[in-house]
Design goal:
- Helix content is about 25%, strand content about 20%.
- The protein has 15 helices and 21 strands.
- α2 crosses α4.
- The strands form five sheets. It has a six-stranded mixed beta barrel with strand order 8-12-9-11-10-13. A six-stranded antiparallel β-sheet has the order 15-16-14-19-18-17, sandwiched between helices.
- β15 and β16 form a beta hairpin.
- The radius of gyration is 27 Å and the shape is globular.
- The two termini are about 45 Å apart.
- It has about 575 residues and is α+β, with helices and mostly antiparallel strands.
- The longest helix has 15 residues.
Length: about 575
């Protein structure tokens, strides 16, 4: 039996209890350390051999050497490399436990037992940030339904397992009734070590506020800087440097796979989107997964901006929309890691990556894979979107993703959220499949739906008008109006002046209407077209910020704001000759 998880001391789901049981900064396998912990726990000894790394764990699960797996606070069916092997491992397991706050993650599909866990704002405990500062946190809202804190789930399981095994010490070893007791035990394990927090307590954190570790007994404050005395946590007390020899990427490009795929993050999404993927406004800047390419590589392959492409690694292939990006070198591609099987057909970027690991850290090579790209020929297109209970609609759309060679589903909108489904294929989908899509989006009625059909050309369009407003649409066979029509539905625009346009095969909005396009500043809802107008009118970046606030809140849009301002001649954003570009 093996346990995999990601306790997060940076503000993730774990806010106390088990997150404090992370090992200290002592060399792994240290016999003295193991003996100290065994004495503290009152057990004979701890295992001498380390557990398996993540890649090793799933290899063993796939081969039957591990029979069961418990995944807590992580989503390996999305976050691990080479999805096919991970999926095979989870399918081969005799028993899979998934402990999470969300029931629709990729890993939850394999769960024999799904344990609802409390989320970040629903728990009591402590959290440590990246500057080693420990804060006391309390639940802001009660956990819904049967959801419980991770430490309580683990404690109750351990006690039940102890009873089943006839162990009479389970109650002593796991005799925790509140997170403070777990904090106290963790505190005891640190005494005398470089992360000594023997002087901390809940009472002190509550009265004095957050404190940095180390904070040994008798200290008046924590240490702002580690190892300032020149003494390090090694046997000699001296720092030890590891001279790592450069190793090229595990997977080399060749004539068949000539391109370097780089995976990474976007500013408005987080990990596998189990949380951020439920907020429509966070899709405004990047609505769907897009393969970014160097323009020269696109030209050689006769790929235009917005075309669908097939990207293949030595493991699988994905169909995505392509976009030119001038910051990529020749033979480089970029694909965000956030979108997975919940949002697209094919499993996302980590389906393409490989499970080779670094020899020291044992981290898999998630950032790179050798691939090939070619233009995909899928002439039949489908666009569908509708408001009203968008999250439920999105969940119902997901089973339809696998029915098309290219398909994505997402949310859109700010004040009025929409569920969006986008697909392409070689030939028109059958009526039953399109009908199922219409039913999910509430476009299957007749009383409030305008319909256009051209059977000879394979074109069919349906637009829902309810209470005098455009509230949903489905376009198949011809989708020229998708962008401006989507914006109309987002705004729930009045239909009186639009009835003659909503079914028309035009890519520009009706006279008097403008398409906003991509949102640059999510905090203050400023679109790229609106910002370009202001810069073109002679406003500087500082003036735009003063008038509209963009770039003054979270700041994540500032690099793009500066580029837009520089493109329109803002002298405050111009670089002197020879200056480099900040990363």
């Amino acid at each position: 039996f093996s346990l995999t998880g990601q306790p997060n001391a940076m503000g993730g789901r774990e806010a106390g209890g088990m997150a404090t049981l992370l090992p200290g900064h002592r060399e792994p396998g240290n016999a003295a350390h193991r003996a100290e912990i065994a004495r503290l726990w009152g057990v004979g000894a701890l295992p001498e051999a380390p557990g398996k790394t993540a890649v090793e764990l799933f290899d063993a699960l796939r081969e039957g050497r591990i029979k069961a797996v418990w995944s807590a606070c992580t989503n390996p069916a999305h976050s691990m490399p080479d999805h096919v092997r991970v999926a095979e491992a989870l399918a081969a397991a005799e028993f899979v436990v998934v402990q999470d706050t969300y029931r629709d993650t990729e890993t939850a599909r394999y769960a024999d037992l799904l344990l609802p866990a409390a989320g970040w704002a629903e728990k009591d405990g402590t959290v440590t940030n990246s500057e080693r500062r420990i804060s006391r946190v309390r639940a802001a809202v009660p956990a819904p339904g049967e959801a419980r804190a991770d430490w309580r789930i683990a404690t109750d399981f351990a006690r039940a397992l102890g009873r089943a095994l006839g162990r009479d010490d389970a109650g002593r070893l796991f005799g925790f009734d509140r997170p403070e007791q777990i904090f106290d035990e963790h505190r005891a394990t640190t005494v005398g070590r470089d992360l000594d927090i023997g002087g901390l307590s809940y009472a002190l954190l509550e009265s004095e506020g957050p404190q940095q570790w180390p904070f040994p007994a008798g200290a008046r404050s924590g240490a702002a800087r580690l190892y300032a005395d020149g003494h390090f946590a090694t046997a000699s007390g001296r720092a030890r440097f590891v001279a790592a020899t450069h190793r090229p990427t595990a997977e080399r490009t060749d004539a068949r796979y000539p391109l370097h795929l780089i995976t990474g993050r976007l500013r408005d999404q987080w990990h596998g989107m189990s949380r951020t993927g439920t907020v429509g406004r966070l899709y405004g800047h990047a609505p769907e997964p897009v393969l970014e390419m160097n323009a020269q590589d696109m030209a050689v392959r006769r790929i235009a901006d917005g075309d669908l492409v097939c990207v293949r690694s030595r493991r699988v292939q994905l169909v995505l929309r392509a976009r030119a990006r001038d910051s990529l070198r020749a033979a480089q591609l970029f694909l965000p890691m956030h979108w997975g099987a919940q949002f697209m057909n094919g499993g996302g970027s980590n389906a393409l990556t490989l499970s080779s690991v670094d020899p020291l850290s044992r981290q898999p090579e998630l950032k790179h894979a050798a691939v090939q790209v070619e233009r995909a020929s899928y002439p039949w297109r489908l666009e569908a979107f509708a408001g009203g209970d968008a999250l439920k609609r999105l969940e119902a759309l997901r089973p339809l993703l696998a029915r098309f060679p290219y398909a994505v589903c997402m949310l859109a909108g700010r004040d009025h959220e929409l569920a969006v489904f986008r697909a392409a294929a070689e030939a028109p989908a059958d009526d039953a499949l399109v009908g199922a899509l219409d039913a999910v989006l509430g476009l299957d009625g007749e009383a409030d739906v305008m319909t256009y059909r051209d059977a000879r050309r394979g074109v069919c369009k349906r637009v829902r008008i309810r209470d005098g407003r455009v509230t949903g649409a489905r376009l198949t066979g011809e989708t020229a109006a998708r962008d401006w029509l989507l914006e109309l539905v987002e705004r729930q625009a009045a239909a009186d002046t639009l009835r003659t346009w909503v079914l028309a095969p035009v890519s520009a909005p009706p006279a008097g209407a403008t398409a906003r396009g991509r949102i640059v500043c999510n905090c203050f809802d400023m679109a790229e077209t609106e910002l370009a107008e202001r810069f073109a009118a002679g406003l500087t970046l500082a003036e735009v910020q003063q008038r509209h606030g963009c770039g003054t809140s979270c700041g994540s849009c500032l690099p793009e704001l500066r580029r837009l301002a520089a493109q329109h001649g803002d002298p405050s954003q111009s670089r002197p000759a020879g200056a480099g570009v900040a990363a």
